[in-house]
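Retro notes - structure team

What went well: the batch runner handled both jobs without manual restarts.
What didn't: labels got mixed up in the shared folder, which is why I'm recording both outputs here explicitly, each with its sequence directly above its tokens.

Job 1
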Amino acid sequence: MELSSLLGRVNPSIIRDINYWLDYIANAGHRIEDGDWLGAKIFMSNAFQSSKTDSIEKIKTNVNLRYTLEVLQAETLKCFDQTKKATSTIKVPEERLNVIVELQEILVELMKKYYLEGLEEKAGDQIHYPIQRLSTAIQHLMRFNIKTERARQEIMLASQHLEETAKETIDKKIKELAKKTFEKIKIISQQLTEIPN
């Protein structure tokens, strides 16, 4: 999938969004190589959502790029559908299950606000970065061979970023979301310290 071919042909303001799309696909490939089909499904879901954002859709106004973009979007959907059909089983460490569920709820809420409720262009990395970190933390927690300390580090990075955003941003909607999410993560971080490494 020659998604990278678009990078030199679009407005620089859109390059970040194409990079997100490209990164999700690359990460899905790495998960498949590792045999982590559940992780691959999550990343391909993110890739599909990234391929349909308003900023990406605006590229279609350029008649020279419309066909290329539509082909890439179709290929992303095809890969997403194929990944969804793959059989995947994973044994989750029981003592981590409650934390995983709570983190997933936070992640879904952030992604809904970011991708579906118009925060993508305004918030940028203020919200996208914590989404990436929490997604990685969940992946770590779901695998027996990865210590909880690695998940703690990812959660700490997300928490610090959200705390800074809550203090520094002037957008009230983003500030409130960052503050609310930071408080939730703080509680989960405390729970995580009680789980064996």
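Job 2
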Amino acid sequence: MVWWQGTRVYLLPILIMKSFLKKLVGFLFFAFVISCVLIASIIAYYGTQNLPALNFTDSYSFNEKVLFLKKQNLNPQVISIGSSMTLNNLHSETVLTELQTNSFANTASWGMNLQEDYRLLKLFDELYDLKKVIIVSNVIDYTQISKRIDFDFIRHYLLHDPTYTALSLVKNLDLKYYGKNIKYAQYVRNSTNEYEYLGYDPYGMVQLKGENFNINEKRWSHYNLRGNNIREQEYVYLDSISIYCQQNSLELYYFQSPYRDGLKSKFSANEMNVLNAHINRIQSTLKDNQYFVNSTKSSWNDSLFVDAMHFNEQGAKQFTKFCFDEAIQLKTK
């Protein structure tokens, strides 16, 4: 009798745990079913074409770019990486003409730093048969904090792996994200006169139209050349990009994006020192047969810009042509 009572006491925690696990599994299954119903209802209401991009990262711009790459099913030999400096300032048609190729993808998105560029470069080199890499950059890219990015999710999504994509989708499921971005997705895809426009050309560039563009006065005058917020580690990752390209026979172009003349003319001596020190640091980091073009040494009329650093369509075309003309001269030296 004592033995039985002791066994019952011993088994009691096990029975409680089994009951708890059973309820937990039931709850999770119920939550999963409810989530599926909600997602199916959203898809039925909005249609698949109007849904937000999947939740690969904290940056919605980056998520949209991954969706674009999947839809276009590109296999580029030339890619451009970077932030909105690359996204908006590198003119696709000019790239195709100057490099005599139609195998190009602009993979850039808002707010990317050099650490993220390095990791993406390695991922895209794994996925594509790369030959050339282009970076358009400015000091601001060296001040950006790193974001959450699920690189494995991106890899399998672009490889059209439905099983792993489904597992990653469940792992990253955030109904708040999708609810928040349903309307925002439509806004960025259609707001042609706004800075947040994400309507891509066939190669992934976003052209900001000069005519009727809603220029924001704060952005028109905003820049940051204090120098105290530049992250030293970003130069280290630029070095990693340079070494990676050298070791893997990838031709690297680095185009330093300028500021509009009306703004640059007001820079203090200290701000010019910060800018020049940054440029010198890049030049000393890049290796032989890697082409650095410093466009800040030339004049860039305010009419070519939509803010302090981002070109309009005409400006992007002129800037890209200028950079390749300079690069050709460097090659022939």
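One thing worth noting from job 2: The chain has two domains: 2-46, 50-332.
We'll revisit the folder naming next retro.
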